[in-house]
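User: Structure please.
Assistant: Input sequence and predicted structure:
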Amino acid sequence: MPSKKEIVDVIRKVSRATKPFQLPITTKIGQSHDPFRVLISTALSPQTRDTVTGPAFARLMKLASSPRGILALSEKQIEKAIYPVSFYKTKARNIKKICKILLEKHKGRVPASMPELLALPGVGRKIAGLVMIYGHGKTESIPVDTHCHRIPQRLGWLRSRNPEETERKLMELVPRRYWKEFNNTFVKFGQNICLPLGPKCSECPVSKQCKYYREVYLEKNKAKSKLSLKEK
C-alpha cells in the first residue's frame, strides 16, 4: 500500500503529463457550469466514446436545451438525436423520465445533493459525482469510470471488484484536495497513455511507481528478449 505522499506524487506527475491532451467531454461541458447540460452529457456517456457522446449531446441540445423542451420531444426524436451512443433507446427513455422528475419535483432544476441525483433514472454514483463537481462546484466524491477503476489497480494502490468499491477506497487514499480533478486527470491518462489494451508503459511518467510495469511489462520484455536470443 503506497503512502499518501507517494499517491500525491503520482497524481501530480500524471496531471503534468496529461495537460496537452484533450479534455474529456464532460469536463468541457462542465466549463459552462450548467448542471442540466452536465447531467444530460453524463447520462449519454456511459460505455460510449467522447467522439460519439459530444456530437450526440450537441444534436440533442439543438433540439431542446431545457427539461421542459426535452420533455416535449418524443422518445423517437431523442433516440434519433443521440444515436449511435450505446444503449441509445434506454438512455432516451431515461432522459425523458429525468426531465419529467426535474419539472415535477425540483422546479425544473437539477438537485444539488447526491441522494437526490441518485434517485434519478439511470444516474449512478459516477454521473452524480460529476454533476456535483462540474455542475454545482461541490466535491463530495471521486467519480469513478472505467479508467479510474482500472488505473489505481494497475498502479498497485488497491484491489477492487467494482467501481463503487474503488471509489470508497480512493476516497480513503487520496487527499480531498485532489478529488475534484482526479476523474478528469485519470480519464485523460487512460485514454492516451495507460490504455486498456497495450498501455504505453515506455511513455508513462509513473512507470517506476507502477506495479503493472514492474510485474507484467518488464517480465514480458524479459521473456521476449530470452526468446529472441534463443532464436539467434
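The mean pLDDT is 94.
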